[in-house]
């Protein structure tokens, strides 16, 4: 039977929880990195490898997208949440950095399932500007998770060791597993699934990569992700080493940035009533680039000026992510899982490179970080402008070369939600 309104709200809250698996397991551990290094008796740089391992896991985990196009969304989601729960327990009991890094890789791999499939489910159910609006809702919930997670991590450290953070994540995984089993319906009916094989999946990826419009928006999103990741990871050292502030000060700044993203997503939903996702995407990238360039000149003036630039750059993710994803997958409803997987792979691969890059060029001051963030932001803006300009000169709706016979987003009628 078709789900009533109350169940639809419950359904979307479940999607938000699944999408938040990634940032929760990432951000909650940030305040505990020094404590984990001391406990495991290694250098801080060694523990930072667990961050890279996690991001690589998330990048590899994007492969679940095309798999879910074949099997449906529910089965891969069940497996992913089970692996996330088990990996969290493995992190909590790890006695060495290699074991912790391996468990973090598995955790990132599983968290990617929640990130990819939650977006694919939205793409299954909505079309047009509604896709961008509902992506904004997901990002709002993810932003709330990012606000709360560092605070939870800091409080846990006051009560127990860093291992307690992964115990909490184990509990989160158990709750989400119950939600998926008992309350989350399938959004992709059998008749809309694609035949599955390695050859078919590889062919789909090749055709997506052969579409200049898709690649343009994918590069735009990847550059935006690189700017966000380098800003967050590099600012830790600037705030604590450069300005001599405490870890709590960084947690407060991080939370302020997350709140600004949440506010930006709400504003984005409202502006979508008047402006197109493409226009809002370009505006967000332009503002992000302006904030990054300001970091080069204003960042050295003090913590307050640095914080203002930080918030500007971080907040624009509320415009970049939702609108960039929506326009990138707009015409590819039949291969939404594969398209989102490819987007995610490119984004998280860029993030895995941006995190160590920000640390490698940094010297504890704002200027080197500003250079890295500016490069990513400006590259993303240029890519978006070129892609939007090329799209305006293109007649008709865009389609993936070789997939012209497949229905576009505006042709696919959303399926009603049905109980599991």
Order of helices and strands: HHHHHHHHHHHHHHHHH
Q: Quote the beta fraction.
A: under 5%
Count of separate structural domains: 2
Rg is 21 Å
Major sheet: size, sense and barrel closure?
none
Fourth CATH level, the homologous superfamily of the largest domain: MFS general substrate transporter like domains
User: Which structural class do the helices and strands define?
Assistant: mainly alpha
Q: Kindly state the percentage of residues in helix.
A: over 70%
CATH class of the largest domain: Mainly Alpha
Apparent shape: globular
CATH topology of the largest domain: Growth Hormone, Chain: A
CATH architectural category of the largest domain: Up-down Bundle
How many strands appear in the DSSP assignment? Answer: 0
Low-confidence stretches: 395-416
| Average predicted local confidence, pLDDT | 80
> So what's the oligomer here?
single chain
End-to-end distance: 10 Å
Write up this protein.
With 420 residues, this protein is mostly helical. The chain folds into two domains: 1-193, MFS general substrate transporter like domains (Growth Hormone, Chain: A, Up-down Bundle); 204-402, Growth Hormone, Chain: A, CATH 1.20.1250.20. The protein is 77% helix and 0% strand. It is built from 17 helices and no strands. The protein has helices at residues 5-19, 21-27, 33-40, 44-60, 64-71, 74-93, 97-125, 129-159, 163-183, 198-209, 212-242, 247-271, 277-298, 303-315, 317-328, 336-361, 366-392. Helix 3 (33-40) packs across helix 4 and helix 7 (97-125) packs antiparallel against helix 8 (129-159). The radius of gyration is 21 Å and the shape is globular. The N and C termini lie close together (10 Å).
